[in-house]
């Protein structure tokens, strides 16, 4: 049954999308055309023929929008264009920089000109070109709006020509490094997509999604561009260097399996031994260093757990060239906390009755008619490392009555800071300022594990 529903959804979705994107002006034109054809029909024809003409006209528009490859959706449609000028746009040269993986691919002639424009109700998007190895896709685009707004994509995706979503995830550059720029009313930028599942990029695919002008309230339009892949211009956009080095933190073994260079990033794949009593939770101050014009430390761009015990850390490294020195440095790791997560406090007597462990100290309790602020904390160990807990929103008083933490529009009144005066990594939360049967019991949502320090420096690439 589920398979039948999926097939039905797949069958009807293109028509639904197309129908949704046909402008009112085109629909009215189709209706008028159908009515005129019906009016010219012989008088002996029944009135129902006119309605059928209208319906046929509408179906022709929908069918054309779905099945004719060169047709664009929406008002002010433009024919798809093939780039006559194969020169690389100047902004592409600027985006890829002077060195790095993308610069190498560009210099090797792997840039694929696309030059296809999609327009809808004053929004215009042109995919100027791309570079790909079928696992990674780098798209270069120009966007414009008739109002002069900068328009950017909102959660765009890659799709097959029958509208099945391809398993690619966009890499969002969450740094203060370079991004797109304006040029005479146009906005230029690039987007990077990475394959996250099986398969590969087909010979033709759609780049689709909503585009947003960034205003409030935002105006969004759906646009899509059909892109061909030139198999003769596939670039090298992934390099793997095996490492297989093991770090030992008091019996917790962490293996650096490999270094993988992909567009704009260097990914480190690490695996921890899950068989021991102590479980690894997170790195605290690990840095990847190189030597380049931007400074020696590569900023962390992403951190994901790919499977239990395995993590990938991505560092922003657009300028990295194969053979550049790479050094991994660090001092601290945090273990996973495995004890009971409960906090019991008598706010009347300023007494911490129970905590997950003896590291947590009760720092202060401030009482007013409006709120009671409870502050606790851990002894600070390093200005770069914060140890903070987080309480669940609901708590219980001494008689078993349920209460909730103070909040404003569902935002809990809580905060974290490193207090130099007290020497604590502090966390506070507020409850309503009234009398409660004591003691108060709070469930702990997050609690730091034990910190282990062992400074190291490991050369990945000399």
Which key phrases capture this entry?
462 residues; alpha+beta; 5-stranded antiparallel beta sheet; 5 helices; 15% helix
Helix fraction, binned, reads 10-25%
Low-confidence stretches: 1-85
Number of helices: 5
Count all strands and give the number: 30
Q: Measure the end-to-end span.
A: 58 Å
Rg over CA atoms, rounded to whole Å, is 30 Å
Summarize the main sheet.
6 strands, antiparallel
What does this structure look like?
Mean pLDDT is 82; it is low at 1-85. The chain has five helices and 30 strands. The strands form seven sheets. Strands 1, 2, 3, 5, 6 and 7 form a six-stranded antiparallel beta sheet that branches. Strands 10-11-12-17-16 form a five-stranded antiparallel beta sheet, with no helix packed on it. Strands 13, 14, 15, 18 and 30 form a five-stranded antiparallel beta sheet that branches. It is 15% helix and 45% strand. With 462 residues, the chain is an alpha+beta fold. The longest helix has 20 residues, at 2-21. The radius of gyration is 30 Å and the shape is globular. Strand 10 and strand 11 form a beta hairpin. The two termini are 58 Å apart.
């Amino acid at each position: 049954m589920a398979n039948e529903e999926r097939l039905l959804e797949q069958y009807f979705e293109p028509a639904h999308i197309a129908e949704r994107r046909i402008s009112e002006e085109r629909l009215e034109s189709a209706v008028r055309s159908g009515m005129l054809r019906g009016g010219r029909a012989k008088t002996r024809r029944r009135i129902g023929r006119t309605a059928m003409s209208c319906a046929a006209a509408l179906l022709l528009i929908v069918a054309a929008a779905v099945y004719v490859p060169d047709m664009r959706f929406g008002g002010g449609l433009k024919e798809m264009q093939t780039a006559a000028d194969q020169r690389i746009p100047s902004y592409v040269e600027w985006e890829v920089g002077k060195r790095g993986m993308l610069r190498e691919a560009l210099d090797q002639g792997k840039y694929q000109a696309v030059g296809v424009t999609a327009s809808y109700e004053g929004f215009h998007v042109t995919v100027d070109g791309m570079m790909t190895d079928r696992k990674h896709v780098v798209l270069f685009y120009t966007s414009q709006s008739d109002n002069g707004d900068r328009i950017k994509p909102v959660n765009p995706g890659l799709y097959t020509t029958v509208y099945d979503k391809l398993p690619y995830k966009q890499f969002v550059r969450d740094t203060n490094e370079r991004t797109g720029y304006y040029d005479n009313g146009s906005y230029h930028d690039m987007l990077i997509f990475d394959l996250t599942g099986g398969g590969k990029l087909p010979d033709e695919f759609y780049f689709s999604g909503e585009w947003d002008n960034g205003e409030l309230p935002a105006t969004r339009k759906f646009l899509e561009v059909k892109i061909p892949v030139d198999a003769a211009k596939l670039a090298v956009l992934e390099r793997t260097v095996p490492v297989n080095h093991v770090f030992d933190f008091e019996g917790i073994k962490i293996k650096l399996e490999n270094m993988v260079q992909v567009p704009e990033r260097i990914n480190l794949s690490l695996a921890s031994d899950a068989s021991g009593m102590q479980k690894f939770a997170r790195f605290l101050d690990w840095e990847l260093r190189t030597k380049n014009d931007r400074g020696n430390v590569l900023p962390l761009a992403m951190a994901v757990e790919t499977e239990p015990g395995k993590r990938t850390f991505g560092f922003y490294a657009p300028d990295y060239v194969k053979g550049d020195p790479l050094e991994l440095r660090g001092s601290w790791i945090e273990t996973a906390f495995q004890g009971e997560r409960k906090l019991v406090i008598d706010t009347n007597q300023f007494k911490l009755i129970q905590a997950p462990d003896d590291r947590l100290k009760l720092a202060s309790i401030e009482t007013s008619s409006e709120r009671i602020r409870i502050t606790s904390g851990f002894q600070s160990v390093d200005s770069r490392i914060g140890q903070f807990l987080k309480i669940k929103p609901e708590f219980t008083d001494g008689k078993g009555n349920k209460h909730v933490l103070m909040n404003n529009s569902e935002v809990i009144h809580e905060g974290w800071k490193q207090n130099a005066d007290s020497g604590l990594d502090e966390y506070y939360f507020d409850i309503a300022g009234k009398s409660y049967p004591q003691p108060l019991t709070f469930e702990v949502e997050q609690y730091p594990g034990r910190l282990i320090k062992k400074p190291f420096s490991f050369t990945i690439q000399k």
